Amino acid sequence: MIKKCLFPVAGYGTRFLPATKAMPKEMLPIVDKPLVQYGVEEAVEAGLTEIGFVTGRGKRAIEDHFDTNYELEHQIQGTGKEKLLGGIRELIERCTFSYTRQISIHGLGHAILTGRTLIGDEAFGVVLADDLCFGEGASVLAQMVKLHRQFRCSIVAIEEVPHTETHNYGIVVGEALSDSLFRVTDMVEKPAPDRAPSNLAIIGRYILTPDVFNILEQTPPGKNGEIQITDALLRQARDGCVIAYKFKGRRFDCGTLEGFVEATNYCYQRFHASDAGQRVVPMSRGAS
After folding, report:
1. C-alpha distance from residue 233 to each of 92, 113, 240 (Å)
2. Residue 201 in contact with residue 161, Cβ under 8 Å?
3. 16-45 in b/e burial notation, b at 16+ Cβ within 10 A?
4. Looking at per-residue confidence, does 109 or 224 come out higher?
5. What residue spans define the domains of the chain?
6. In sequence order, which ranges of the chain are alpha helices (DSSP H)?
7. For residue range 42-58, what is the model confidence (pLDDT) as tens digits?
8. Which class is 4-275 in CATH?
9. Is-contact 211 236, C-beta < 8 A?
């Protein structure tokens, strides 16, 4: 049973400067909640309550967010504003939070390897908070956990992207098992559009088996001189099995200004527009 979820959050967020000069990009708010809280809620809905963060310099606000603020809570105790903390209080009560620091940034693969001390020898989820996902029925991560129970291998979430955008993603090729499932046969990190083998792009949701750590240790720097998780996953695919899954739901690329604004408008309309933002939306209690 998967219990742990890793959040690599050490990146600088340079596309959002100057907003991210002193604030972690993962703490940028989508209406009234920071991006990273949406990701943790998704993990909890999938039954993953042991949350690990791979952080870096300037990321202390993430630790503070998932902790009790006694001064603030004392000031608003007994007022109508107290209910606004209901969601984050529930997360703090249900989860354990662990942190380790990525001293130098050498790609997503390196960040995941840095988190090994928080995970140990068990399968685990990975959430990139930049990708804000809303699943149909169950959360995207919950859908993937269910697939892992069936296949017992690493699972990556994918979606079709325009061919002109393949250079922004890891791209997969695979043997179709159904309309939404592919057994991966090849992966390419950020190929130019004229060299992309498909338009099936990996997005920021993974279920990884623990052997990925040993593979990452042996993986040389790849694209841009970084240790790429796609290189390690390709090794897993060739030695065993990796499943790519076209998830049911919607994803917003909040690593871009356009995606961030689109996500903000979507969340306002979906959760807040009917009562001008006064309604508190409870966190769902999905599969565990």
Report:
1. 32, 13, 10
2. yes
3. beeebeebbbbbbebeebbbbbbbbbbbbb
4. 109
5. 4-275
6. 35-45, 60-65, 70-76, 86-94, 108-114, 116-119, 140-151, 211-217, 229-239, 257-267
7. 999 999 999 999 999 88
8. alpha beta
9. yes
